[in-house]
């Protein structure tokens, strides 16, 4: 009898699987039709990255025009922080809705609907005449963002194998950060003008709303959910058909994973600094930089984090190959450890002012840290999530991650404003007074609050990541055994689990003895 080749054996094994389950830890060989520009994977990946660009742009245009909103609505920093809080809180609490809709229905439709919702209410925010109206519109905007993020991340996880997910998520982080960079640069500089007789910040909101709606239409027309596509569009193997039910046991499976719990817990504290950084543009403006210089420094920082995310994804994949149980975590801990240094140096250790030399100094420091500070999600968090849960639950794990992390981290923006006003002496609206000394004093007050909300959370996040060295190997091994059991029909036992925990990765991505 002629023995079967490995590809034939794997193909026969897959045909025997139930339709609602799929193995995701043993990807097949790459197929030549996956890489062409006409393939479903290519088109969907491009469109998911375009939605990531617009999602981050939509998030960043608001803090980029804080000074102009403060003038229009006569709002203080803490009041402006409520705008960011309303969006982030609704986005976080609505993320399970995004996860459930993506779990039940075509994720392309869910993503397009999110684009249409956030585009509509970003445009509506441009028409508001009071701060309360803007808070309401920006809150509903968060619902649209909540629909897009979990579906986009799970689509990337389904289209790419474990060996390349770090690069895929790094690219997604890169494009999203570029969107934030372009949004901040565009909105801050347009905000100081009156195109077509419209206040600049309103014009910026309207244009971003229009482009977001167009991207939603393109996604609806050309993207494909692999659960509805032919298997040849996948690098990561067959993907389970969408389930029409979501059992309480599925949620329990996610919530009782120690690795999930630790990543979410560190994400709660680790996202606080990024939420607080919405005040960076205002901080640079008050210290004496021009609107263009302030937007340039912040935009270049986000550009550096974009490239840094891609670097982090590559390093995470490399570390996972050589050190499968600890590599991704170590790469991330190095990146997180730089955070407190960054906060103290930028906000306490550098001169204030707006001269070309000072601007160049800030750009140099921000670029250096941006390249090294943005590795966590693409190097560790997102790839690890894809490895520790069944493929059918990926949409939900990304959604609940956003829910738990974002709901608390969203409080950072108004609390920074409150601390700046009540603990460090910030007075008046979030706008320039015309007195350089007074503005510099207000910048120092705002910087003092920012240090607390950046350095301390990053220290806590670094400590929490240490726990993954103990939980991730076991959770990863258990997921690999469960996937293997689906193929073979046998029940994994404790002896198998112990062997996997101490094994090395085999060629197909699982642990071997």
Automatic annotation (TrEMBL):
<dbReference type="InterPro" id="IPR011701">
    <property type="entry name" value="MFS"/>
</dbReference>
<protein>
    <recommendedName>
        <fullName>Major facilitator superfamily (MFS) profile domain-containing protein</fullName>
    </recommendedName>
</protein>
<feature type="transmembrane region" description="Helical">
    <location>
        <begin position="296"/>
        <end position="315"/>
    </location>
</feature>
<feature type="transmembrane region" description="Helical">
    <location>
        <begin position="359"/>
        <end position="376"/>
    </location>
</feature>
<feature type="transmembrane region" description="Helical">
    <location>
        <begin position="108"/>
        <end position="128"/>
    </location>
</feature>
<dbReference type="Pfam" id="PF07690">
    <property type="entry name" value="MFS_1"/>
</dbReference>
<keyword id="KW-0813">Transport</keyword>
<comment type="similarity">
    <text>Belongs to the major facilitator superfamily. Spinster (TC 2.A.1.49) family.</text>
</comment>
<keyword id="KW-0812">Transmembrane</keyword>
<dbReference type="GO" id="GO:0022857">
    <property type="term" value="F:transmembrane transporter activity"/>
</dbReference>
<feature type="transmembrane region" description="Helical">
    <location>
        <begin position="135"/>
        <end position="156"/>
    </location>
</feature>
<dbReference type="GO" id="GO:0016020">
    <property type="term" value="C:membrane"/>
</dbReference>
<dbReference type="InterPro" id="IPR020846">
    <property type="entry name" value="MFS_dom"/>
</dbReference>
<feature type="transmembrane region" description="Helical">
    <location>
        <begin position="200"/>
        <end position="223"/>
    </location>
</feature>
<keyword id="KW-0472">Membrane</keyword>
<feature type="compositionally biased region" description="Basic and acidic residues">
    <location>
        <begin position="483"/>
        <end position="507"/>
    </location>
</feature>
<feature type="region of interest" description="Disordered">
    <location>
        <begin position="1"/>
        <end position="37"/>
    </location>
</feature>
<feature type="transmembrane region" description="Helical">
    <location>
        <begin position="260"/>
        <end position="284"/>
    </location>
</feature>
<feature type="transmembrane region" description="Helical">
    <location>
        <begin position="327"/>
        <end position="347"/>
    </location>
</feature>
<feature type="transmembrane region" description="Helical">
    <location>
        <begin position="443"/>
        <end position="468"/>
    </location>
</feature>
<dbReference type="InterPro" id="IPR036259">
    <property type="entry name" value="MFS_trans_sf"/>
</dbReference>
<feature type="transmembrane region" description="Helical">
    <location>
        <begin position="168"/>
        <end position="188"/>
    </location>
</feature>
<keyword id="KW-1133">Transmembrane helix</keyword>
<dbReference type="InterPro" id="IPR044770">
    <property type="entry name" value="MFS_spinster-like"/>
</dbReference>
<feature type="region of interest" description="Disordered">
    <location>
        <begin position="483"/>
        <end position="513"/>
    </location>
</feature>
<feature type="domain" description="Major facilitator superfamily (MFS) profile">
    <location>
        <begin position="44"/>
        <end position="475"/>
    </location>
</feature>
